Amino acid sequence: MLRRLLPTVCRTWQVPRATITAVRNASGSVYEPDYLESLKPKFPQYESLNVQIKGYDYPQLESYQRFLHGLAEYLELDVSDCYALPPQQTQVQRLRPNSAVIESEYKLTTYERNLQLNNVDAPVYPQFLRIAQAALPEGVSLQVQQHTDDCEERRYVPDKELLDLKSELERMGGATPTKKK
User: Fold this and answer.
1) pLDDT digits (tens, 9 = 90+) for 76-85
2) Three-class SS of residue 171?
3) What's the per-residue H, E or C state across 10-56?
4) Residue 104, Cα to own-chain centre: how many angstroms?
5) For residue 84, what are the β-bridge partners?
6) Which pLDDT score, from 0 to 100, does residue 109 have?
7) Which terminal residue of the chain has fewer beta carbons within 10 Å of its beta carbon, N or C?
């Protein structure tokens, strides 16, 4: 039946008859058209990368994130998400020599920004990384890793009120089982 329909299909879609072959070839495998090969990427790709930048200076970090986002768009990389994590407070105490007396105390705030890139071509990744490292401001750290579920979980801040209610419920003996009818 396919042989009878083939000339009609070729005329209707204006496809050269040589490009359409039988559904199954001689070895019995399924025929795949040539254009499917052209849809595959030319180079291997990194599926999902997480570019993490940390620093103590908030405006400088925001400016660098804006720079990285623009660089990724210039190199035609797929930026799927940009997000900030809550700042982390660290308290540093400086002691006097040979004593336990505190000479000075500092409160440091570490800010973190993340840029998530998808389907990064292997030849473009080193170019992105070299330019990002060359423009890295002083006091800012850059880390690139594959995106994992752990990276996704760190984004979300737990609801303290909900956690308190759950712990109170546990102290009271847990939830009572509901009766099924």
Assistant:
1) 899 998 988 8
2) helix
3) HHHHCCCHHHCCCCECCCCCECCCCHHHHHCCCCCEEEEEEEEEEEC
4) 40
5) 113
6) 94
7) C
Residue 65 reports pLDDT greater than 50: yes
Cβ–Cβ under 8 Å, residues 54 and 117: no
**Of 20, 41, 39, 15, whose CA–CA distance to 31 is shortest?**
20
Q: Which of 93, 91, 69, 89 is nearest to 80 (CA)?
A: 69
Return the amino acid letter for 130: R
Alpha helices (H) along 19-173: 35-39, 58-74, 124-134, 149-155, 160-171
Residue position matching structure tokens 């200076």: 57
pLDDT digits (tens, 9 = 90+) for 49-58: 999 999 999 9
Six token digits for residue 45: 């790709």
